[in-house]
Amino acid sequence: MIEKEKTPIAVPRKTIYARGLPICHEFAAGIDIGDTFHAVAVWSKDGYEVREYGSFTEDLEMLVQWLVSEKITTVAMESTGIYWVQLYLMLEEAGIEPYLVNAKHVKNVTGRKKDDTDAIWLQKLHSCGLLQKSFQPDNDTRVLRSYVRQRKSLLQTSSDSVRRMQKALELMNIKLHTVISDILGKTGLSMVKAILDGERSAKELLKFKDHRIKASEEVILKSLNGIYKEEYLFALKQSYDEYMFYQKQVDDCDEMIRKQLEGLAAKVLDGEITETPLKKKQKRTCCASTHKPC
Description:
The chain is an alpha/beta fold.
């Protein structure tokens, strides 16, 4: 009998994988941001060490100093309100890379143990590279953004003052805001200011009408014939003063924004900023009768 040749047994390929997720950030920490205190978690040979620091400035300085002493190079924290802002800036100044993460991204990662605090869970995810930091601008852009956001907030608040002005005028049955397109224009504010100064004659108020107003004088006279009561005038004055105050605040913001933009431009242009003179607007002559350009 002829014996069949034995086929050699293939040697199985053997690959050894590390247990658990790889560590991307060895010297990482997690911070649970709060209003009154911050919980900080770091990993050591003995296990996780969690410390709690207050939210005062000296507490934040102690927190950063402890992280530096532990040779921490990066920190993960949730974007809780605005409580993270100053700590974020202090960590940057100390040479520690902060990761500002979205709380929703942290909650979407499963596998958390019940006995883990938020700081430990942040440290675990961050050390394995599972967290993505939110975009944060540089310091100069951050300052400019603060001024712009403050200006936007002032404009939103001043719009409430305008609505209260319109309500006070409506209570006096002065239909000015329905006749002209905008009571915040030259005509509207001049008439409101004259009313607050004691003017009650519709004919005298009509003198503040700008030639660009499309409404007829007859309609405007009817709209200015109101019922002037003391309580309504008081409400109108407070709303007017409030609006003018916020406009002054907006002008101050514009000045700070201008200075910040000039500083940014100076860095780009190596300090060479040339002011271009504004072109003078040509005066348009108009006919006295039709108030239209001749």
